[in-house]
């Protein structure tokens, strides 16, 4: 593996030890930061249920950074770990696409590599998957050629890098024009002080290296990406009192961002300087009736929507362009919704998380013992009261199999399956 001869070797060693030796599965994590992901869409849950267990049990991601509609694409996963997201992507890109994971921790890579042949049996084709040993700051040296990837994904890894600019620059180079970095990570609403940045557990748990959103968005623009788009956001709870004292007032969020590398030769944009009319024509498997571009823009199939020139340009100049028509509305006087600033989204996510706690919704990890579960919110929050689980249709992600909790009727698509019932109920 190419080496990084800089002052950060201690950070790399500490992270490698944490993911290679200290953690054995996601049950060993001390905060919810690395498992703050909400339930992925049904299409992805059904793929997850078919991935070999050694791969899924070492999943430490904080989001769902897998775009749909990527058949035939070349996908790169930074910090692929045991490979769960690569295994999902392999099913989505099919036999004509490819998936490459990069990670620096041998134990994680071993799990990722060792389960490919079993997975090929499940898929019914030999997926083009490879797992490279290397640093996400040096993806070229790890063997990834410039402009060779359509999509880069990453799940809770960039925060662990002591040199995030190098990571973003490398991703920009590896992407083809029109490609996208679609990734979930941990962010802070202010600059972190040194005692948080250097704390070994906070660092390993994806909190200590969290990027201040403002700084990250500026960096992404400087490198050449279009204005970052927030796809989803969730406040991260820290329950450990000692860690809580260290972080003070700073709030942490799991955010899935979309960073598009514009293809200026794509799309006849004409006088696209004001608003534009965008129509989604379908064609993205799993998003047949509507397409979610970001938290502010959901396009219903065959329904035209007015968007800002920035949004129209971003769509017309990216890999998603074939699913849409984009027409200029210059001079029409029509008004478009602007993307909500990330600071406002963070405030809202924090308020929402406080409301759900006071409504009786349990915090992650406390849910089972407290028996707390708000009606209707249970499934998406991953909160589930013991004993009531089956009849309430409430099922905590990841715990479903062992807890025997499974929402009636939804079992197959949700990937949740009660032991013993699997046969007759047709679940999983
Ligand atoms: C929180 S885990 C996430 C793993 C995986 N993305 C998932 O969702 O399960 C972080 C992973 O990133 C890897 N990692 C952290 N910093 C890295 C770096 N600078 N270069 C390569 N891999 C790195 C670790 O080895 C670990 O496997």
TrEMBL record:
EC numbers: 2.1.1.137
Class of the enzyme per the UniProt entry, highest EC level: transferase
Domain of life (superkingdom): Eukaryota
Keyword Transferase set for record: yes
InterPro entries tied to this protein: Arsenite_MeTrfase-like (IPR026669), Methyltranfer_dom (IPR025714), SAM-dependent_MTases_sf (IPR029063)
Claim: Transferase is one of the keywords in the record: yes
Chain ranges of the Methyltransferase domain: 72-222
Region of interest (Disordered), ranges: 356-428
Reactions performed catalytically: arsenic triglutathione + 3 [thioredoxin]-dithiol + 3 S-adenosyl-L-methionine = trimethylarsine + 3 [thioredoxin]-disulfide + 3 glutathione + 3 S-adenosyl-L-homocysteine + 3 H(+); arsenic triglutathione + [thioredoxin]-dithiol + S-adenosyl-L-methionine + 2 H2O = methylarsonous acid + [thioredoxin]-disulfide + 3 glutathione + S-adenosyl-L-homocysteine + H(+); arsenic triglutathione + 2 [thioredoxin]-dithiol + 2 S-adenosyl-L-methionine + H2O = dimethylarsinous acid + 2 [thioredoxin]-disulfide + 3 glutathione + 2 S-adenosyl-L-homocysteine + 2 H(+)
GO molecular-function terms, A-Z: arsenite methyltransferase activity
Keyword terms: S-adenosyl-L-methionine, Transferase
Stated family: Belongs to the methyltransferase superfamily. Arsenite methyltransferase family.
Name of the protein in its database record: Arsenite methyltransferase
Source species: Coemansia asiatica
